[in-house]
């Protein structure tokens, strides 16, 4: 039954695609929930998995079970999410080390950092976020922003410097 739905979905039949995704939705949620132990994360990762499935449905080659292919996408999506969370945590810790203060919730701290980030110029904010939040290498950021690697390093440096100044100003 899946093979017919898959072929129709790959042919552009949106109803078949919707039916296919609906059929496998709870399977993916349960898998991610078991893997992560976090119900909300399971729903978030499942949504991202379904979006990627829609985007990549024509890449499914029928060599393995469709559910196996979905697990592969869900696993990669979950691992990507964990890497992003780790980078965010590391940035939070780095900023917390530089600006120790009385105990404040992580949510409140991150809100202050976001506010300070938005005050930076795009040319500093974008490479800074790509480097320290998403973990891209300078060479990758240079390609993305179409500037030289040295310029990216400089912008990240000045972005951090301006971010530090902004956070110090907010403390006073």
Automatic annotation (TrEMBL):
Keyword Transcription tagged: yes
Keywords, in A-Z order: Sigma factor, Transcription, Transcription regulation
Coiled coil: none
Domain annotation RNA polymerase sigma-70 region: ranges: 20-87
Keyword Transcription regulation: yes
Pfam family, one: Sigma70_r2
InterPro entries, sorted: RNA_pol_sigma-70-like (IPR039425), RNA_pol_sigma-70_dom (IPR014284), RNA_pol_sigma70_r2 (IPR007627), RNA_pol_sigma70_r4_t2 (IPR013249), RNA_pol_sigma_r2 (IPR013325), RNA_pol_sigma_r3/r4-like (IPR013324), WH-like_DNA-bd_sf (IPR036388)
GO MF term (any one): sigma factor activity
Domain RNA polymerase sigma factor 70 region 4 type: 112-161
GO biological process, one term: DNA-templated transcription initiation
PANTHER family cross-referenced by the UniProt entry: RNA POLYMERASE ECF-TYPE SIGMA FACTO, RNA POLYMERASE SIGMA FACTOR SIGV
Protein family membership: Belongs to the sigma-70 factor family. ECF subfamily.
Stated name of the protein: RNA polymerase sigma factor SigY
Species annotation: Halobacillus litoralis
Gene: sigY
